[in-house]
Write a structure and sequence with these properties.
It is a single chain. By secondary structure, the chain is of the alpha/beta class. The chain has helices at about 5-25, 55-65, 85-100, 110-125, 140-155, 160-165, 180-190, 210-220, 245-255, 290-295, 310-315, 350-380, 410-425, 455-470; strands spanning about 135, 170-175, 195-200, 225-235, 260, 285-290, 305, 385-390, 395-400, 435, 440-445. The chain has two domains: about 1-30 and about 70-85 and about 360-473, Aspartate Aminotransferase, domain 1 (Alpha-Beta Complex), CATH 3.90.1150; about 100-345, Aspartate Aminotransferase, domain 2. The chain is built from 14 helices and eleven strands. The strands form two sheets. Strands 1-7-6-5-4-2-3 form a seven-stranded mixed β-sheet, sandwiched between helices. Helix 4 (about 110-125) packs parallel to helix 12 (about 350-380), helix 5 (about 140-155) packs across helix 7 (about 180-190) and helix 12 (about 350-380) crosses helix 14 (about 455-470). The longest helix is centred in the C-terminal third of the chain and has 35 residues, at about 350-380. The radius of gyration is 24 Å and the shape is globular. It binds pyridoxal-5'-phosphate. The site of pyridoxal-5'-phosphate has 13 residues, from helix 5.
Length: about 475
Amino acid sequence: MNVSEFKKNGHMIIDWIANYFENIEKYPVKSKSSPGEVISKLPARAPEKAEKFEKIFGDFEKIIMPGITHWQSPSFFAYFPANNSFASILGELLASALGAQCMSWATSPAAAELEEAVMKQLAKIIGLPESFCGVIEDTASTSTLCAALSAREKYSDYAINSEGFGPENKFTAYCSGQAHSSIEKAVKIAGIGKNRLRLIGCDKNYAMIPSEFESAVKKDIKAGYRPVFAVAAIGTTGSTAIDPLREIGKICKKYKIWLHVDAAYAGSALVLPEMRYMIDGIEYADSFVFNPHKWLFTNFDCSAYFVRDKGALIKTFEILPEYLKTSEKSAVNNYRDWGIQLGRRFRSLKLWFVLRSFGVSGLRRIIKKHIELAQYFAEMLAAEKGFEIMAPHPLSVVCFRYKPHKNLSREKTDAFNADLLEKLNSSGKLYLSHTRLCGDFVIRMAIGQTGTEKKHVKSALNMIINTAKNMSK
Ligand SMILES: *Cc1c(COP(=O)(O)O)cnc(C)c1O
């Protein structure tokens, strides 16, 4: 492809993207593709000879698009959102054009300094204390792994990095039974061990019970373990429960445990001052993660990881082979030393575009709207006979189920709701997902796409109510 072809194809693709967003509601939200359908249409070998862009793009439309689930649809209500925006798409496009490798300051000074500036702005936007500084990681899973590794190093006096685990490193870690699977993954990879991750009990709101956390810590210490790592979930993935951060923080301080706060989805809501109660006690935290790639209009990937003591982070990850030595070391941030990867994408560019083109007031307005829509949804559904709201819904996710008859067994109620979910999703008109709370199958309605308006929530409500009632006739 030469420059003039690039111009022609590039303009065409921008038009295509604009049309896609204009027509996105015409696609089935959840792909109707069956397993193997896409791959059966793809050749086993790459072409020997160059192919025309028109042909490649034609196959994108014919083969790839039918196998896409439309995450940006305003009727996408599954999992958590992974929303984007035009500003973010354009920032990403420029980042791919520059193709900069942002491993150190010297390999692109603007990338390092923009990342530093944007993360400072972001910390202020969500009300983190001044003492936190941030770095962009690919995902919350990686951020949490960085936290687990930093905890391991800090509390082994950085010995495990050099000597490996010894018999004296009998570490334990803690999170609630509702916390995200990425924590289990992190403690496995960090060598703490999955069996030494204590799952602490939750109250009726699915939030961690601090007294049970402290008992578990005491018991472990008595048994000769060293508790090093705890995660407080602000907005659990199942039901968006909020762990009591201050009380957990006091316990962590008392026993010298690294406290990591996982607010992957809910962190975006902190743009609203009235939601900052969720991080009351944040001064106890050693690290904090949230994903602008979930609910802050920044396309995947972009995870904001903040630490209170960047020294512990850098001491855990720093490497300095001869070929990476540069003269500016102390004055600037070399982000390769702030995480696992060496090579890094220029992610701050799209985030900068988003923050500026929405403005903080724009971010607040849309996040607030999503939360209000969820409250409206819950209120309307609760007023319908047979529907039950299954957990508190302080954010933009509502967990519910339908119980056609009062005395229906748990198994039958679960099966009914699984059927209901399947029917709704196969309509192509909307997409919801499920979880289990206290063993019960519940449907999750997660509102957070950039283009979601009240009319989309209303039509989802009508579909859910009518489908459930028709099925139970
Ligand atoms: C989504 C989510 C994660 C994982 O996020 P990734 O960026 O996909 O790794 C972790 N914790 C919570 C609470 C989440 O909701």
